[in-house]
Specification:
alpha/beta; 7-stranded mixed β-sheet; 6-stranded mixed β-sheet; 13 strands; 28% helix
Length: 287
C-alpha cells in the first residue's frame, strides 16, 4: 500500500519526515513525498499554491491509499478553495492527521469519506506505542478496542454511532462556512491545547448555540493539554465547565479519552460508526 506525505500547514524539520518515512517503509508501506513538502515559506511548509499542488497531486494519484499530513499548526484553511475533489471521490483515500488537519476531516465528512484522527510524522518519535499501534491497525484494516478508567464526571450510557469532530478551536472556526461541523445522530470528539478555561467554555457555548448538541448521541472529550486558568481564578476545572454546558442533554459523556495533543494519541476513524460504553468503572471504545 502507498502513502503520500503532504504538508498542508506549518513547516517542520525534514529529519522528522525522513525518520517517519523509514518507520512506515519498515512497516511494509511505500511512501512518496510531496514535491514542495520542505520548501519553507516563513511559517508555512511552502507557499499556498505549492501546498495546494502537493495535496491535489495526492488526491488525484490513483496509486495512493493514504494521504498522511506530516504536521498541523495552521494553514490548511488557506488552501481549501484551491482544491478539486472530483478525482478523489472516484477513488477515495484515507486522510490522516490531527490538529489543523481537522479542516480536512470536516471536508471528508461532507464528502461522506472516512478519515483518521491520529498521530503524525512530526511527533512519531514522541508518540506512545499505543498511538503507533492503533494508527497501523487502521491502515491495515484491523480493529481497535480501547478500555480505560472512568472519570468521576463521566455520564454513563451506551451508544453506537459515527464519530465526528477533532480540534475544538478549528471546529468553531468553521462555523458558518461550507465546512461547518455536522453532528446530527453522531458521537462528537473534541480536543484542544494551549487555550484558557474561559476560551474552551466560549467555544463550547458557540457549538451549543449553533445547535450542535441537540441531536448528539455522545460526547468524547480527549486531551485538553496546557489549559490555563486566568489570573483571577475562573473557579471551575475544564471538566466542570464542560459538564455544566451539557448537563441538560441526555447523551453519555466521557473525559480524558486518550487522543489529541498528547503523546498517547490513539487513532479514531472519523465518519465511521463506533461503539462507546461508559459506566462508573470504565470506558470502552471499539471501532
Amino acid at each position: 500500500m502507498k502513502i503520500s506525505f503532504v504538508a498542508p500547514a506549518k513547516c517542520l524539520d525534514p529529519e522528522h519526515i525522513h525518520q517517519a518515512k523509514i518507520y512506515l517503509e519498515k512497516s511494509g508501506f511505500v511512501v512518496s513525498m510531496g514535491t514542495y513538502i520542505t520548501c519553507q515559506d516563513h511559517y508555512f511548509s511552502a507557499s499556498d499554491e505549492q501546498r495546494a499542488m502537493d495535496l491535489q497531486q495526492a488526491f488525484d494519484d490513483k496509486t495512493t491509499d493514504f494521504i498522511f499530513c506530516v504536521r498541523g499548526g495552521y494553514g490548511t484553511i488557506r488552501i481549501m478553495q484551491k482544491l478539486d475533489f472530483t478525482e478523489f471521490c472516484k477513488r477515495p483515500k484515507k486522510v490522516m492527521g490531527f490538529s489543523d488537519i481537522t479542516v480536512l476531516h470536516n471536508q471528508m465528512r461532507i464528502l461522506g469519506i472516512p478519515s483518521v484522527h491520529c498521530t503524525m510524522p512530526s511527533v512519531f518519535t514522541t508518540s506512545t506505542a499505543e498511538s503507533m499501534r492503533t494508527m497501523l491497525n487502521v491502515m491495515l484494516g484491523q480493529y481497535n478496542h480501547y478500555e480505560f478508567t472512568s472519570f468521576p464526571l463521566n455520564r454513563t450510557g451506551q451508544v453506537e454511532a459515527p464519530v465526528v469532530g477533532g480540534n475544538l478551536s478549528i471546529l468553531c472556526s468553521l462555523t458558518g462556512t461550507p465546512l461547518e461541523l455536522t453532528t446530527d445522530k453522531c458521537i462528537l470528539f473534541i480536543e484542544d491545547t494551549n487555550e484558557s478555561i474561559y476560551a474552551i467554555e466560549r467555544m463550547l457555548l458557540q457549538l451549543k448555540l449553533a445547535g450542535k448538541f441537540n441531536n448528539l448521541k455522545g460526547l468524547i472529550v480527549g486531551s485538553m493539554t496546557n489549559i490555563s486558568d486566568t489570573t483571577i481564578s475562573y473557579g471551575k476545572t475544564i471538566e466542570e465547565v464542560i459538564d455544566s454546558i451539557v448537563k441538560e442533554y441526555g447523551f453519555p459523556v466521557c473525559y480524558h479519552f486518550p487522543a489529541g495533543h498528547t503523546k498517547d494519541n490513539r487513532a479514531i476513524i472519523l465518519g465511521k460508526k463506533a461503539t462507546l460504553i461508559i459506566n462508573k468503572q470504565k470506558v470502552i471504545f471499539s471501532q
